[in-house]
Structure formats: C-alpha cells, structure tokens
C-alpha cells in the first residue's frame, strides 16, 4: 500500500518578510501530520498578478528569493511532495517589496535611522549594519542655489524610507577583484581598471548609496555608478554602453557612458572621502556627490531598465559601501538560506 501524499504546508507568517527586492519565505508541515515529506516546491507570481512559476525545489523550509522588482506585490505559495505525489498548495501569501513612499509633508533625516525604516528583518549580509542618524536636522546634501542642486535636494526630500543595502558580488566580478569584510570591501590586484557590481539590482523607485574611499594611493581614477549585469569587467566603468559612471582623480571628475567623457568638474577625492550615488528611476536620472556636495549637474537622464551599483578600481584604491558604523557585538547568522533569483 502506497503512503499518502503530504498535507499542504503552512506558511509561517512571522518568519516571512521582504527586504529591498528580496523576499524570505518560511513554511512547515502541519503539526499533526505524520506523512513523510521528501521536498517542497515554492512558487511566486510575476509581481503583477500573472502566472505562478517555480523558484525553489528542495528539502529546506526557508528560502530567500532575490531579483524581484521594487515597489511590487508578489503572491507566494508552496506545496510538498513525496514518492506518492504532490500535496495541495498552501494558502497564498501576499508580499510587498520595498517601495519609496513619496511625501511632501514628511521628510526623514538622511541616512534614515534603522529604527525608523520599514524593515522587520534583514538579509544575512546586512544584519551587522546599523544606520546612524549622522545628519539629523538637515538634508543630506546642503541646499545650493543652482538648478541642479535644487533638483537633487527635492529628490532626497522624497527619499523618506528607502536605503539601498547591498554587498559586492564575487560571482559577476572580474577575477582580479579582491573581496574582504564579508564582501563589503573591495580592492584589486591589478594596475588595470577592473569592475565589480553590487548584488542588488534596481528597476523602480529612488535609491541612494555611498562608497567610502578606504585607500587612495598614487592618484588613480576609480569610477562609480550603475551598470547592466553584462557590463565589461576588464575596463574602466563607462567605457561601454552598459554603464553610466563618474570617474574621479584627486582634482576633478568626469561623467562617462559609452566611452564619451562629459562635464569635467573641479573637486576630487582623497583617502577618507565618500562618493554618493543617487539613482532616481522615477525621474530616470543619475546624480553623484563627493563628501555630501553634488558633483556637477545631473549626470545622466532617460535611464530605464535594471541597474546594479558598480565600481571600477585598481590596486591603488579600496572602497566599501557606507551607511554608518558597523554595529558592535553583532555577528552574521550561522545559517545560510537557500537563495533563488528571479530574472
């Protein structure tokens, strides 16, 4: 006599959450069920009410799905299987990925203090990070009188709940890139420019991040910006048509896309400087700053699609994303969740 098929799994709502454009789902078998389970199939729709598709098949009862759209509502469901067959689906859970709520009346200090952000739980790489309200009481950029400063100021005023969290991605980086600090710090073992991308891609909304220059020797010219996943990895960021960047030395900067250099601007970087990147996919613009001051005009317009934070650098430069100080006494989780990427 064959054993029965499993009972439908139960989604554990207290363990399910979203962070940035990732969703973590957790489930279990009904407490009174004694039927053996060999694995689970997790399904998500397309974030727009479309058809479900499989994003994970395996024995684990928790999974993080990466690469979702921002500001989108996804439906998730899971079913169990054994040698006898497949269970009915669990109840469907609706998840909202991070959205950039725009409000003219409410403006938070920036960076946003962690306790005021809309996170219930974080992914493993960011669990040690603690945003500090270092600039409470004023806009992150001082307001300037020129038109482009006013544009940047208004963008940051509407950025009242979203901070771009990411680590660098060894899987897509050039082989000469050196990773440390749990992939939060990068340098290079070559004198030639090499590209590394962040793990989180952005397709909607308003996103800001900073990169701290931890080492800067012999006046190199690193580049910072955004790129497609298939950008050239063995040339300066912006040399091809898959990247939009600002490259900068110790005295001045330029914008570069498809090997076209524009808007030379005085003001460079030194060790300890911070480079800010503001990607506004509502206005479809990209803007840069150095040490809290906007560098040049709006760098690029008419941006559309999926963009990853990107850096190119050589062995004379070391950078890391910066959101505040690392929280003391907190370690990374010991358990690594299975991960699935939706593309």
From TrEMBL:
<dbReference type="InterPro" id="IPR036116">
    <property type="entry name" value="FN3_sf"/>
</dbReference>
<dbReference type="InterPro" id="IPR003877">
    <property type="entry name" value="SPRY_dom"/>
</dbReference>
<dbReference type="InterPro" id="IPR013783">
    <property type="entry name" value="Ig-like_fold"/>
</dbReference>
<dbReference type="InterPro" id="IPR003961">
    <property type="entry name" value="FN3_dom"/>
</dbReference>
<dbReference type="GO" id="GO:0005737">
    <property type="term" value="C:cytoplasm"/>
</dbReference>
<protein>
    <submittedName>
        <fullName>TRIM9 ligase</fullName>
    </submittedName>
</protein>
<dbReference type="InterPro" id="IPR043136">
    <property type="entry name" value="B30.2/SPRY_sf"/>
</dbReference>
<dbReference type="InterPro" id="IPR050617">
    <property type="entry name" value="E3_ligase_FN3/SPRY"/>
</dbReference>
<feature type="domain" description="Fibronectin type-III">
    <location>
        <begin position="5"/>
        <end position="100"/>
    </location>
</feature>
<keyword id="KW-0436">Ligase</keyword>
<keyword id="KW-0175">Coiled coil</keyword>
<dbReference type="GO" id="GO:0016874">
    <property type="term" value="F:ligase activity"/>
</dbReference>
<feature type="domain" description="B30.2/SPRY">
    <location>
        <begin position="146"/>
        <end position="328"/>
    </location>
</feature>
<dbReference type="InterPro" id="IPR013320">
    <property type="entry name" value="ConA-like_dom_sf"/>
</dbReference>
<dbReference type="Pfam" id="PF00622">
    <property type="entry name" value="SPRY"/>
</dbReference>
<dbReference type="Pfam" id="PF00041">
    <property type="entry name" value="fn3"/>
</dbReference>
<dbReference type="InterPro" id="IPR001870">
    <property type="entry name" value="B30.2/SPRY"/>
</dbReference>
